[in-house]
Each structure stands twice: as structure tokens, then as C-alpha cells.
TrEMBL record:
Residues 460-535 form the tRNA synthetases class I (E and Q) anti-codon binding domain. It holds the Pfam family tRNA-synt_1c_C. Keywords: Aminoacyl-tRNA synthetase, ATP-binding, Cytoplasm, Ligase, Nucleotide-binding, Protein biosynthesis. It comes from Paenibacillus baimaensis. This is Glutamine--tRNA ligase. SUPFAM superfamilies: Nucleotidylyl transferase, Ribosomal protein L25-like. The lineage of its organism: Bacteria, Bacillati, Bacillota, Bacilli, Bacillales. Its EC number is 6.1.1.18. Residues 345-443 form the Glutamyl/glutaminyl-tRNA synthetase class Ib anti-codon binding domain. It comes from the Bacteria.
Length: 559
């Protein structure tokens, strides 16, 4: 289970809530909630909101609720519900038995609307959606009253009952709260609180054909569950007066309090569900779990750990306004998490054949190599060494520049965990002139771990034995978008925005045999290449696929 970070006790939300609780605002225990709509998958911004609600609830010895805002049957289904529950549990913010559904409160929400109509605080409106928008006015001009605003209570009650019975087509009538069409807050200009939708709901079936709007259902659901604090991102601040109005008019005792925190954005990352859906449905990416997406499913498939995501959010702390955080901080937190607990293996992604001419032809040597240079507890493993090996192509240069410390003609280099080798001959393709093979010699006395203290070499390179190498496809990921800006509104064309090198697939990379039986989502450090994860979606019994999570180099907070 995730725990709240103690240093956050000084952030503004903790201070605010502490003051209100000490003033005796509630006679019940602390309770917060996260209310996702099950019409898509959670993303890194969702994790920030979940963390905020979860940690505050537990900081004050309260409970955390997961409640699905499932009041729109046109977009929601059980697939998203199951995915959201799984993702939250994976993150470490498990709500336990406190999983609820807004649709389970349909009767209570309907009765609340009836109460407002009977009080003369709500009415049935026949304006079209376009007319409702037109009558609402602008930020600088007040709205106009609907011609149906002064219907009698009796007529409104009769019409609402007929709406519930299914007597009218979709969107032909709505229920609107009667507040103030001249309010400077547009959300209070007689907002729609119920609409007609003839669609089957994934939980309630066809029991209902009218559904409440979120701004109306939200405070009622909070009150039913005994929520003390509805902690929302900053874009809901202008909705707070409506939240309070609903609770006041319904005379809810000790009503929940809505408080806002800043919305999290990351450089080069789009978290809007609408834009993410365009990417998925337009086949610009490989589904909602594409490792380039900021969805929790994508981050998990790429190889991010829940510990690294929680650490990232704790590093940010609570923010008051819209804030953009450098994505490199997330990568930094991942490296810090993986560095002490992953096994470092050798993987050659662009192989160049090396024949060690003075090594015995049929000799097989099992060399002991440390699994993690910073964590002895991870032990050592055996790595096979033989006459023919592969090294990275860019680890050899025939005519190296000054400062090149890898292999070159007539020069020595150390093979990691093995011997010094010297390149004696370069073999090239007769037609293309491409280097196809190197002939080298090794010095037996330079074996790693033998206590050899003779001559020194500046470079160490990785390698794999040709006869024992395991083939794997390796996906190298970079940022998905060339810029953070998204396509123009309504265009949905991401062609020019997508980074063409956001995914580079290396076919038949060669890895040491230790990884042959790696399990799904297992993480490794590939020597000099970065941190990698077994792709659980593409890996099969016949094909091993790795995703690069992040390179080794950490750029966070560096100039």
C-alpha cells in the first residue's frame, strides 16, 4: 500500500484541511474520493489526482473512495471500469472495499431533482442544445431567461415524470436549475442538471432514459457517501459555487467541501482524453497501452514502476495552479528506482562479428559477472565466452578520432567481465567496403577477476558469445510529439505532429542467454544502452521483445 509522504504535511492542502478540521467543521471521519468517468484509461495526470486524494485521506486516518462517474451511457463500459480498478491497484492506491458507482445512486439523484422542482428551484426547458448555449450569454454579456423558465411547478413535475417514462426523444427536453442568468459565473446561469438519453447503460440496462449531469450528480454522490473533501483539479474551481448551491438547496447537513489543486502537465505530453482517443483511433499509436502514451497502461507496458510514479508525484508536491513539469523528472525518478534493483546484462543491438583467432576452437568458458555493480546482494551470474563473439558496431572505428576509447585497429580494449583483446585485422565486403568481421587476439592473463595489474586500457565494451546469443526485438522509444502543441481544433490530423523516430525497432538484437526465460514486465539494465522491460503484449513463446524505458543518462536538473 502506498503511504503519504510526510514532508507533504506542510503543503497548502494539508494546512487548509488541518485548519478546518481543528475548527470542527465535520462530525465524521475524513473521507475523500477519486471519481473517474469510465470512458477511457487513466493517465499520469490521473495518478496525480489519485495520489492527492489518497494521501490526504490516510494522512488524517480517513478512507479513500473510488467512485465511477458513470452517468453517460453513450461513452462508458465495463472495460474501462476494470482497467481503472486494475491501474489504481497497480499504482498502490488500493481503495479496498470502497469502490462505488454513481449509477447506483440513480434513485437518490432523481429524487433530488424532484425536490428542486417542487421548491421552484428547477424547471423543464424545451430549448435545443444550441439555443441553451445561445441564451447563456458570454463572459462579458449576461444570459437571457429561457421562455420556459416560469412554467408552473405542477407542469414541471408532470413533464419530468414523462421524461422519466421515455415519452420524449433524446435531447428534446432538459431539466435546468433556476439560479441566475445574469451571474458573472456562467456555470450558475441555469445549468442543465438532467437530459434525455435513450441508450442502454452498462450497469442499469434500460431502467433509465434520463441521466444527470456531472455537476449535479457529483455533490449528491459525495453527500451520500459521507465524503468530507471533494479534492478536484483547478479547472473545477468555477464549478464550486454550483457544487455548494446544490448541497445548500438540498439542505445537506455538514455538506462536503470542494477544494482545488493545480493541474499537472508534462512537457511534450498530451493527456486530454479527446486527443488521446484521436491518436488511438487514428492508428497513430499501438492502442491505449502504447508505450509512448502517458496512460498508466502505456507507462506500465513501457516499464515504468509504480514506485517511480509515486516518487515523481511526491517530488512535485501539491501545486496550486496549472503547472508544467519537465518530463525528465519522471525519467529521473525511474532511474533512481531501477538503479539499485535491476540486473545489468549485455545486449548487442547493432552486431559486428569478432573472431578471437588465438582462442581455442571448441573452448567454452563460463565467466562470473556481477549482476549489479552497486548492489552486491543481487549476486553474480555465468556468462558464456567463446572464440566468436559479437560487439556493437559503433564500438569499433578503423581510424578513430582523438578521445575514442573503444576498439580500433592495433589497439586494445577490455571485454566486460572477460579479457583484453587487440584488433589485428579488419575484414570488409568486397563490393560495398562495409566492415563485416574483425580478427582479434586475446591475452589470457588479463582475465577479469584474476588479479591482473599489468598494463591498463581506457575502454571497456560489452559483447555476447555468437553461439549462445539470444535474439530479441528491441523497441527504442523517444518522445511521441515533435512539439507539445496538438493539431488544430477539430482537425484530428497528427501526421505532422508525430515524431517519426518516436519508435525505432531493432530486429534480432543479440543478448546474453541469461534473459532467455525473462518473465513479462521484467526489467533489466542493458550495459550502456539504458533500462529495458520485457513487452508483455508482444512477447510470445517464440519471440522476445524488449522496450527501452529510458536511456542511462539522466538529464534532470542539468544545464
Amino acid at each position: 500500500m502506498a503511504n503519504g509522504n510526510e514532508h507533504q504535511t506542510e503543503n497548502f492542502l494539508f494546512r487548509l484541511i488541518t485548519e478546518e478540521l481543528e475548527a470542527g467543521k465535520f462530525g465524521r471521519d475524513m473521507c475523500t474520493r477519486f471519481p473517474p468517468e469510465p470512458n477511457g484509461y487513466l493517465h499520469i495526470g490521473s495518478a496525480y489526482a489519485i495520489h492527492t486524494n489518497y494521501t490526504i485521506a490516510h494522512r488524517f486516518n480517513g478512507t479513500f473512495h473510488l467512485r465511477f462517474d458513470d452517468t453517460n451511457p453513450l461513452k462508458e463500459n465495463i472495460e474501462y471500469v476494470n482497467a481503472i480498478i486494475e491501474d489504481i491497484q497497480w499504482l498502490g492506491y488500493d481503495p479496498g472495499d470502497h469502490i462505488y458507482y454513481g449509477s447506483d445512486y440513480s434513485d437518490e439523484i432523481y429524487n433530488a431533482a424532484v425536490t428542486l422542482i417542487r421548491q421552484g428551484k428547477a424547471y423543464i426547458c424545451d430549448l435545443t442544445p444550441e439555443e441553451v448555449s445561445e441564451f447563456r450569454g458570454t463572459l462579458t454579456e449576461p444570459g437571457r431567461n429561457s421562455p420556459y423558465r416560469d412554467r408552473s411547478i405542477e407542469e414541471n413535475m408532470e413533464l419530468f415524470a414523462k421524461m422519466k417514462q421515455g415519452d420524449y426523444p433524446a435531447f428534446s427536453k432538459v431539466v435546468r436549475a433556476k439560479i441566475d442568468m445574469a451571474s458573472p459565473n456562467i456555470n450558475l446561469r441555469d445549468p442543465v442538471i438532467y437530459r434525455i438519453l435513450h441508450a442502454e447503460h452498462y450497469r442499469t440496462g434500460n431502467d433509465w432514459c434520463i441521466y444527470p449531469m456531472y455537476d449535479f450528480a457529483h455533490p449528491i454522490q459525495d453527500a451520500i457517501e459521507g465524503i468530507t473533501y471533494s479534492l478536484c483539479s483547478i479547472e473545477f474551481k468555477d464549478h464550486r459555487p454550483l457544487y455548494d448551491w446544490v448541497l445548500k438547496e438540498l439542505e445537506v447537513p455538514e455538506p462536503p467541501r470542494q477544494r482545488e489543486f493545480g493541474r499537472l502537465s508534462l512537457t511534450g505530453v498530451v493527456t486530454s482524453k479527446r486527443f488521446l482517443r484521436q491518436l488511438v483511433e487514428g492508428d497513430y499509436v499501438d492502442g491505449w497501452d502504447d508505450p509512448r502514451l502517458p496512460t498508466l497502461r502505456g507507462l506500465r507496458r513501457r516499464g515504468f514502476t509504480p514506485e517511480s510514479i509515486r516518487s515523481f508525484i511526491e517530488e512535485i508536491g501539491s501545486i496550486r495552479t496549472q503547472s508544467t513539469v519537465d518530463i525528465s523528472l519522471l525519467d529521473h525518478c525511474l532511474r533512481q528506482d531501477l538503479k539499485p534493483k535491476t540486473i545489468s546484462v549485455m545486449a548487442v543491438l547493432q552486431p559486428l562479428k569478432v573472431v578471437i583467432t588465438n582462442y581455442p576452437d571448441n573452448e567454452l568458458e563460463l565467466l562470473m559477472v556481477e549482476n549489479n555493480s552497486e548492489n552486491e546482494a543481487l549476486g553474480k551470474r555465468e556468462v558464456p565466452f567463446s572464440k566468436t563473439i559479437y560487439i556493437e558496431r559503433d564500438d569499433f572505428m578503423e581510424q578513430p578520432p582523438k578521445g575514442f576509447h573503444r576498439l580500433s585497429l592495433d589497439a586494445e580494449v577490455r571485454l566486460k567481465g572477460a579479457y583484453f583483446i587487440r584488433c589485428e585485422q579488419v575484414i570488409k565486403d568486397a563490393e560495398s567496403g562495409e566492415i563485416t568481421e574483425l580478427h582479434c587476439t586475446y591475452d589470457p592473463i588479463t582475465k577479469s577477476g584474476s588479479g591482473f595489474t599489468g598494463r591498463k586500457v581506457k575502454g571497456t565494451i560489452h559483447w555476447v558469445s555468437a553461439a549462445h546469443a539470444v535474439k530479441a526485438d528491441v523497441h527504442l522509444y523517444e518522445k511521441l510529439l515533435l512539439e507539445q502543441d496538438v493539431p488544430k481544433e477539430g482537425s484530428g490530423d497528427w501526421t505532422e505532429a508525430i515524431n517519426p523516430d518516436s519508435r525505432v525497432i531493432v530486429k534480432d538484437g543479440l543478448l546474453e542467454p541469461f534473459v532467455e526465460h525473462a518473465h513479462s514486465e521484467q526489467k533489466f539494465q542493458f550495459f550502456r544502452h539504458g533500462y529495458f522491460c520485457v513487452d508483455k503484449k508482444l512477447t510470445t513463446g517464440k519471440q522476445l521483445v524488449f522496450n527501452r524505458i529510458v536511456p542511462l543518462k539522466d538529464t534532470w536538473n542539468k544545464k
